[in-house]
Design brief:
Layout lengths: L10 E3 L8 E3 L8 H55 L8 H4 E8 L10 E3 L1 H14 E6 L3 E5 L2 E12 L5 E13 L2 E8 L2 H7 L4
Parallel strand pairs: 3-9
Antiparallel strand pairs: 1-2, 3-4, 5-7, 6-7, 7-8, 8-9
Length: 204
């Protein structure tokens, strides 16, 4: 840090004094040197405090941002586990109100022709879950691998079951993009291999 105070008294030799003694040169300012020095010192201290407050504000802002990311991530992870538990009927359907927005949407972009491609609304999603035990039994979902993204997460997990109609095993790998709003799931996109569904149905 560079500090300049040109009004501070300078020490120079004077011929009319004993040799070797030094005396202050008069300040060019109309104010006394001591007052000017104190004024400059106050100004420098004020600038230093301002910079300190700015740095503290930046650090607090960064900490607040990181804290919010961690809270959002923790909330999204908790919601994901509740979503999967609802999917396999491990927790009461009444919990859905705390998990999904009323206008939640879910898409299945790779669903085979004639299968559900999208759902809109919490009631429609729960009705879809309620139909699953009618065509698949012993549905088991593996522990998800979770990656944080802006506004939510990406989860990769497996699903295993037996299709009732065909009696054939069903094994799937899922990739779910899940987005959170106001501490509830707002939208999802679930990707899976539609060919595996058709094979488990005996259609391939």
């Amino acid at each position: 840090m560079r500090c300049v105070c040109s009004d501070v008294a300078k020490i120079v030799p004077t011929p009319d004094r004993d040799e070797g003694k030094l005396e202050p040169r008069p300040s060019a300012s109309s104010e006394p040197a001591g007052r000017v020095f104190v004024s400059g010192l106050r100004r420098n201290v004020a600038l230093g405090l301002t910079h300190t407050f700015i740095l503290l504000g930046e650090r607090r802002g960064t900490l607040w941002f990181l804290r919010n990311i961690l809270i959002t991530m923790a909330t999204a992870t908790e919601l994901l586990h509740k979503h999967l538990a609802l999917f396999v009927c491990e927790i009461p359907v009444g919990e859905a109100e705390n998990v999904y927005h009323e206008d939640v949407t879910i898409e299945f972009p790779y669903a085979p022709e004639g299968h559900t491609r999208s759902l809109s609304g919490r009631d429609a999603l729960l009705a879809f879950f309620a139909r699953i035990p009618g065509f698949a039994k012993d549905f088991c979902v593996g522990e998800p691998a979770i990656t944080e993204i802006e506004g939510g997460l990406v989860a990769e997990y497996t699903g295993d079951s037996t299709f009732i109609e065909s009696g054939l095993p069903y094994s799937q790998q899922y990739v779910l993009f899940m987005y959170v709003r106001d501490s509830k799931i707002a939208s999802m996109r679930e990707y899976y291999d539609g060919q595996r569904v058709l094979r488990a149905l005996g259609e391939l």
